[in-house]
Structures are given as structure tokens and as C-alpha cells.
Specification:
By secondary structure, this protein is of the alpha+beta class. The chain has a domain of 222 residues: Roll (Dipeptide-binding Protein, domain 3), CATH 3.10.105.10. It has 16 helices and 19 strands. A hairpin with a 2-residue loop joins β6 and β7.
Amino acid sequence: MRNAVVCLILFWLLGGCSDDPISGNKIFRYNEFNGITTLDPAFARSQSVMWAVHQLYSTLVEVNDSLQIKPLLATHWEFKNNNTELIFHLREDIWFHDDPCFPNSKGRRMLAEDVVYSLRRIADPKVASPGAWIFNGKLDTLNGITSLDEHTVSIRLLKPFQPILGTLTMPYCSIVPHEAVETYGPDFRRHPVGTGPFQMLAWEEGQALVMKRNPTYFESDQQGKRLPYLQGIRVSFLDSRATEFLELQSGRLDFINDVDPSFKDEVLSRTGKLKSKWEGKLVMQKHPYLNLEYLGILTDSLNPIIQNSPLRQKAFRLAINYAINKKRMMLYLRNSIGTAANSGFIPPGLPAFDSAKLKGPEYNPEKAKQLLISIGYEASANSPITLVTVPAYSNLASYVVSDLQQCGINAKIEIVQKSLLLQKMAKSDVAFFRGSWIADYPDAENYLSVFYGKNPAPPNYTRFKNKTYDALYERAISEPDQMKRITLYRQMDSLVVAESPVIPLWYDLVIRLVNPRVKGFSPNSLNMLELRMVKKD
């Protein structure tokens, strides 16, 4: 019976009935190629889950288009006690979605205790949230999160940690009511109850997810009109990129995220522009994306797999960097989607990025050969270094290895499945690997923590350890002055460039192909799906 009801809703509400008043322009449709496994924000670790969770739930604070922290469920906040306590003052007009978990199925007002419950839940070992790491070493999750009254929350830090506000913007930190978690138990993943702009209507796993407008949502536009404008969202789960693209062309999807290699050359020119045949039919959006693609190198000289490898030498790692023609790589492998990474590990979009002040190695094969000579490296006398990657990046690996071989570096490729590569990286069982780092929150600390010597893997997959770097990191995270903190961040990034535990390849771009009827749909550097202000003609 349940499946029949779900199918009826999907058919009637979202396209099966032409007389339905909300089946057309007021429904936003997108496809989730990777599927959605849960709608519990404590498990929002993948983009597909984060996008859906972002529609259903809200956090205390959020990131605006300029990557600044702004209030959402909170009205304002202040740091106290030498920056070791963060006080949040909450809005008093926030209501949870109507749901059977509440008396008479009527959603209740959100209170400070809900914030305490939600944040403590992330760290609860019984929940086993993959987001538990966000508070590790930063606060006492049992006693450090308390309500001071119905509308005030205190978060006490073990020591000053300035990026804490950014951390609290993550979907993990969405506010949930205890009634829903207790009522549905493990099935809470299928019964989301939040305060977000949309609420769930139906979910047939593998077929479609349907959300409807939340009539009690608290935000309004500048003219006082209640948000969101849309009546609903429909998420399909087509597992073919080609079919997804055809659905966009036919108008049955409103956008697709990224341009798949299978039709990249059909849509984009070499310089990354939309080909003329698609003008007027599709709108291409480009925006800096806080995602960095890189090659990682294990630097723990005590590890047996690196002891006899040239990778343990800084000059050899720098030679690799000089040997790769990143600009040509972007042109031929990426259709100019992104920018060659020659300015450190911090990507554009963050205030600490400054290509004028930090210039890393650029393509210079002669410089690479000189560095190899300086350490007495001869390809014929050394076993090949092995670049380990996943199938989706085999073309990139072939390109890199070809450039290395042309500069006299003995190199080869090994292709493994993603799960195995991540396992090897975590166990320090791979010396040379392709990786990527997508920002969890908009602070350079999120990138620089990758090299903090006291961090395990993840995030410190290279096992980089440097006393000067660690001292700078510890100063930076407790520095309340933003400009001083940025200066420290840049010093740390310079050290990373000099020591080369990673070879940055490119700074990414968000690429979206959008139905021209969609208005107010803005990309952002975290590539979060933001639909509150979206309209459809």
C-alpha cells in the first residue's frame, strides 16, 4: 500500500497530471547520479546527502555567497572568556515541520535544548556519526554544550579555535528534534524532521525523492514575501550521465552539476566556453569551487615503503612539480575547467589565497632535470615510482607519468578502486597517490590542517611533520585577528610549497548547465545546492 501511495504522489504531483496547479514551473527537478543513502544530517558526508539535507534542515549559522558567516537559526553570537566560550542567541520564530512524532502531528517551536541535543548527538559514540571528528580536541561535547535559557546556547571550547563558526555551518550541525529521532529510531534516515525551507513528502529509494514547500519557514525576501518561492523539489536517481543530459535537454531536469567527460567536448570548447549550438538552450554557470586536486607524497622517512625511494628527498618532489605541464593539462584534459595550481594548497575564493605573494613551481623541465642531477638521480638506476589512482583519473595519471618520463623520472601507474586507495592512504601504505580536498567549511585552516603533524590520516595522508609548521598552525587557530591569522596561513602555505608533500594540480570550478527558465539559482564556492531564492518562469 505504501509503495502505491508513493507512486501516486510521484505521478500526480510531479508531472503525471497536467491539471495539477503545482506540477509545472514551481517544481525544481534535479538528478542525483550517486543516489541518496540517508536524510539524517548526522550522516551527511557525501554531496548527494548534503544537498538534500540542506533543503530539509537549518544550522545555527550559514555561509553567504561571499564565504562570510551569517546568522540563520541564531540571531547573533559573541565570544567570551578569552575566546573559549561561544554564546548563541536564537530566533524565537522557528518551528519544526509538522510530523506524527509530535502531539497532534503539529510541529513545535525550536528551543535551545534542541541545539544542545543535536550537537551532542554528532559526538555520541552510539550514533557513530562520520562527523564526530569536527569537535575532536576542540570541545567537551558532554559538558561543553549547554542551554543558558530557552533561547541561548553556550559552547565552551577546550582552547581558542577561531574556525569554530565555520565548522558549525556544516550539514552535520543541522538541528533535529529529539522526538523524531526517538520515534523513528534507525528509520529516522527515512523520516527527516527539520526546520528547513522544504519538508519531505515521499521517498521511493532508487526512484525519486519528493519535497514540498514548508509553509512555516521563517525567512522572507526583501519585499516581505515568504521563502521559498518553489512549491517543491523532485530528485530522480538516473544512473546514466548520458540519460541525465538528455533529460536536461528535454526540459525534464532543471540543471546538472559538472560536465561529464562523455559529453564534455559536445558542450564545451577547449577554452571552456559553451558552444554556440547550445546558446539559448542552456545556461552555463561557472564559479570558483573550494576543491583542490593534487598528487600526495608520503613523507614519513621511517616508513619502509619510502626509505629507499627518491620520493623521500625534497629536491625530487620539487622536480616532479616542475616536470608537470599543468596549463596544457587543463586545456586538453579539462577543457579549461579550473586553473593550473601554481600558488600553494589554499585555493582561490579564500582570503588567504594570493597568487602574487605565493608563487609555486611552474612548468620548467630543465629545472626539473637540474634538481635530479643535484641529487644524483638516474632513472635507469632506480625502480619506478608508482602513481596510484582510481579508474576515473586514469587519463590524468597517464598524462602525469608521461611528463615525468620526459624529464627522466622512472614512473608508472597503478589503478585501484576508490575504497582500496582510501584504505591505503589511511594506513600510510601508498607512497604516491592522486587526491582531492573539498572544503568542509570556508576557512583556510580546513586545508592547512591536512599538514598538521599531530593530525592522523585522514586528514594528514602524507604524514607531513614540521615543527615550524605546527607552531604556526597552533598560533593561527587561536588568533582572533583575521588579518594576522591570514598572514600565518600564508606562511604555512609557503612551507608546504617549499617542502612539497603534495603537488597541487588545479583549483577547481563549479560548472552547472541550467535550464534557461530557472532564475535566482546562484552557484557558490562550496557547491551547495541553494534553492530558497529560486524561481521558474
